[in-house]
Amino acid sequence: MNRSAFVAFIHTFFSEKKEIASLVLHSTNSTPTTGPTHTLILTRHGDSIWNGKHVGCKETFTGWTDVPLSPLGEKEAIRTGEILADLTREVEIDALFTSTLSRAKMTAHYVWWAYNENLEEQYRREKHYQYYNRPGNMPQQNSMQYQGPAQWLADYRLNERHYGSLQGLVKVEAERGDFGHSADEVYKWRRSWHAKPPILDDDDPRRLEERRRFGPICGLENIPRGESLNCVAKNRIRPFVEEKLTPLLEEAARRKPGDEGGTALIVAHANSLRALIGVICKADQNETAAAFSKARGDENPDS
C-alpha cells in the first residue's frame, strides 16, 4: 500500500435497523505515514434471494453462485445511496469498485442512482432561494455533483469467498449434519481464517457452470474450487489492493491539492470485505488473524 494510509467507513445492512455501522481503520505501518490518506467507503451488497429473508427461500451458502438481489435488497441499496449522499456530500468519489457477481453489481447501480438523486435534491433545496426566487437568474448546477466516479470497475477479485461444495446447501441443514458434516466442521469453515471448505469436483455441475460463466471474465485458472478467508486475502484481495486500488487512488491524489487523498466506494461481499480489512490492517500477516476471523460485520457473513 506504499506510503499511504487508509480510512474506511463500513456500512453493513441490518434487517430491522436503518443506521450505518462505522469503523475507522488506519494503516498499521510502524513508520510515520507520509503522503495522502485515502478514504475507502465499503458496503456489502443488499439482501439476496439466498440470504434467507426472501419468501420461499432459505438461508443458503452462496459464494460464487450468481443469485440476484431480493426486493428487500433493492430497497436496502437505495437507502444506502441516500445515506451515503448525506454523509459524503463534500467528498468526490474517484472510483467505484464492485465484484463481478450480480448481487454486488445491482447494489452498486441502485446505490449510485440514489446517491445522485439525493445530492440533486439537496442541491435544489439549498439553492432554491438563491436562484429560483430571483427573476432572471438561472440555476447554476454544480456538475461535479452529478458525474459518475472517474472509474467504475468490476473486478472478480472482489467476488465472495468460494464455499466449495457447500455452495447451494441450506445452512441449517448443513449444520445439523444432513450432508455428512458436523456442526463443528461447518462452524470452522464459516469462522476460521484458515479453514477451507470441501472443494468442488471438476465434474460437478456447479463447477462446470462456474467455468462457463466466469472463464471469459477472469480466466479458468482464476476460478477457485473452495477458499479459506486467508486464500481470499492472499490470492485475490492483496493483489487487488496493490495492483489496482492503491495506484488508482494515488493517481487521483496527484490531481488534488495538498495531502488530500483519493476516495473509493467498494460494493462487495461480507467475506471479501472482511479480507480487505484484514489486508489493510495486516491481519493476514500476523497472529491477529485468528482473533480477527471471529469478528462479525453483518448478519449473513457467508454470502
Automatic annotation (TrEMBL):
Annotated GO biological process: glycolytic process
GO molecular function ontology, one term from the record: phosphoglycerate mutase activity
UniProt xrefs under SMART domains: PGAM (SM00855)
Keyword Isomerase assigned: yes
Domain of life (superkingdom): Eukaryota
Organism, as annotated: Thalassiosira oceanica
Name recorded for this polypeptide: phosphoglycerate mutase (2,3-diphosphoglycerate-dependent)
Binding site for substrate: 44-51, 62-63, 103, 160-163, 171, 190-191
Broad EC category: isomerase
Keyword Isomerase: yes
Site residues (Transition state stabilizer), renumbered to this chain: 269
Source organism phylogeny: Eukaryota, Sar, Stramenopiles, Ochrophyta, Bacillariophyta
UniProt-annotated catalytic positions: 45, 160
EC number: 5.4.2.11
Gene3D superfamilies documented for this protein: Phosphoglycerate mutase-like (3.40.50.1240)
